[in-house]
Amino acid sequence: MSFPFNPSSGAVLGGAEFWRLSTLIETSGDLYTADSSLRAIALGPNSDVAQVQLTYIDANNRLRSGSIILDARKALVGRLDALLTQQYSSGQRGQLFITLLDWMPPAGFQPNDFLANDFLSMITPRLDLLGYLKEQPTYISARADAVWEFDTVQNAPGAPAPQTWYGVPAYGRRTLDVGFKLIDNDLAMPDADITVFGINFTSTYEADFTDTGYQQEQLAQQLTIVPGDGVDFHLEAEAGGWDYYLFRVNGSAGAAFPLAQPNAISLKITTRD
User: How far apart are CA 74 and CA 76, in angstroms?
Assistant: First the structure.
């Protein structure tokens, strides 16, 4: 999907020293453009996306284009020109093109062991990007910790009893801290299990952004958590980490949760670089 986004235009006209793009991602094929030349560019503190590619016309050989990869570890400092009077070989204007290198969850994604009555809540990843129009004393060089909290388990009539899944983006955030508690209330809550998975998305056809597969691995599990009790996990991923962390909460031994259960659990998830 293409987004003709030009965050630079208003920033230049307004005399600003930088522009900021903060947007939710729809597909791995999302495309962004910028009209202004840059002195530096960095992924912002709220970016779930960890890698983007910048494409530009080579100022030394305007018949060629070049590309460079920006990742979450540090800002890319140096002049990067948008040559609007020039054209790429495709005929497009010489803007800066920004594309994603991280694979996003495909539409309709369901993890392994997903049952007919299950519920899946996937947090949509965000791209946070800072383009600097003037040189600065310092630049953003790190992402902030990402924190998500959930308090609801789902249920529906029928068998098997539904499992509730929660997915949060990681993309290079290798440290994971999880705090889970099953709330003790008056609604006859069953014992609960929680399982943590890592997911990496892939594609067999690089040009087909809908043909996305995935690798899923179980990372941790705690069975038979009684109401009022809980568990904490601290996990360190290997180099590269996971694209997403998935959390499955279900009644122990196939038991079903009561219907319509907000405030039934406390699940706090923190990821950090």
Answer: 7
Q: Count the helices and strands in the chain (H runs, E runs).
A: 1, 19
Q: Residue 172: left if φ>0, alpha if ψ -120 to 50, beta else—which one? A: left
> How would you label 60-94 residue by residue, b for 16+ Cβ within 10 Å and e otherwise?
eeeeebeeeebebeebbeeebebbeebebeeeeeb
Contact yes or no for 220/195 (Cβ under 8 A): yes
Q: Is 192 within 8 Å of 225 (Cβ atoms)? A: yes
Strands 93-94 and 83-87, bridge-based pairing: antiparallel
Alpha carbon 145 to its chain centroid, in Å, reads 13
204-237 pLDDT per residue, tens: 544 444 555 889 999 999 999 999 999 999 999 9
The torsion angles phi and psi of 254, rounded to 5 degrees, stand at 80, 10
| Number of other CB atoms surrounding residue 149 within 10 Å | 10
Q: Give the tokens for residue 194.
A: 């929680």
* Residues 78-135 pLDDT 10s: 888 887 777 777 777 878 889 999 999 888 889 999 988 899 999 999 999 999 998 9
**In this structure, which amino acid lies at residue 223?**
L
Measured over the CA atoms of residue 1, residue 87, residue 54 and residue 201, the dihedral's sign is positive
178/9 Cα distance (integer angstroms): 42
pTM for this entry: 0.87
Looking at residue 106, what DSSP letter applies?
Answer: P
What does the alpha-carbon distance between residue 57 and residue 84 come to, in Å, rounded to a whole number? 10
- DSSP per residue over 10-28, as a string? HHHHTT-SEEEEEEE---T
Give 141-186 as a DSSP string: --PPPEEEEE--B---SSSSPP-EEEEEE-TT--EEEEEEEE---S
